[in-house]
Amino acid sequence: MKQLLILFIAAALSAVSGCQKAPEQVWVSAPELDVSFELTDEDGNVVTADNYGGRLRLVFFGFASCPDICPITLQNIGIALNSIGPLAEDVTVLFISVDPKRDTPDVLKEYTDAFHPSVVGLIGTYEQLSAVTSGFRTTFGYTQASDDGQDRPLSKEEYDALSPEASYFPYHSSQVYLIGKNDELLDIIGYGSKPPVIEENLRKYLD
């Protein structure tokens, strides 16, 4: 386990080619996470963390219409999983959508299937997402362009009032959590990590 898990911190919400990242904490030691959750999977089933217990997991927050952070990260994960061959059967990738208005189970299933069979899409209510992001010590939210062209954060009430077709932009963390078979945090894989880096991290705990 790395002694230092260094994440760059953003002073404010920043857009990266249209997909927004949440401010990220700087952790000087491995934090204790609560990886429990109750969400709905891409097949419409209610699931909890126990459904994936005893397996190596990669956990990543995002949304299906994310133009860059999510597809780049999931593509790199998919390449890494293909590289480890049969060992990939012992890995589950949990892609937790923070955009429940747009990401129905069917939308998530079509999206995750494009990357690798080990990727499972999960979705929940605002309250459920608040609970799971809090447990992972991260955050999520939504912004909307104001009249002056600046993005402003939306309250839960404002978000609830929007239709799926409304112009709003989710934001989320960009790191990938590597969770062990006993629900422990093994590592955090930073955004932009290439497939060989992800593969090395997986092999370390699979071999």
Give an overview of the whole structure.
The protein is α+β, with helices and mostly antiparallel strands. The chain has a single domain, classed as Glutaredoxin (3-Layer(aba) Sandwich). It contains five helices and twelve strands. It has helices at 69-83, 105-113, 126-135, 156-160, 195-206; strands spanning 14-16, 19-21, 38-41, 46-48, 56-62, 91-97, 119-123, 140-145, 151-153, 169-172, 176-179, 185-189. It has a seven-stranded mixed beta sheet with strand order 4-3-7-6-5-11-12. The chain has a five-stranded mixed beta sheet with strand order 1-2-10-8-9. Helix 1 (69-83) links the parallel strand 5 and strand 6 (91-97). Helix 1 packs across helix 5 (195-206). The longest helix has 15 residues, at 69-83. Residues 1-18 and 23-29 have low confidence and may be disordered.
Topology:
Blueprint: E1 14-16, E2 19-21, E3 38-41, E4 46-48, E5 56-62, H1 69-83, E6 91-97, H2 105-113, E7 119-123, H3 126-135, E8 140-145, E9 151-153, H4 156-160, E10 169-172, E11 176-179, E12 185-189, H5 195-206
Parallel strand pairs: 2-10, 5-6, 6-7
Antiparallel strand pairs: 1-2, 3-4, 3-7, 5-11, 8-9, 8-10, 11-12
Helix pairs in contact: 1-5
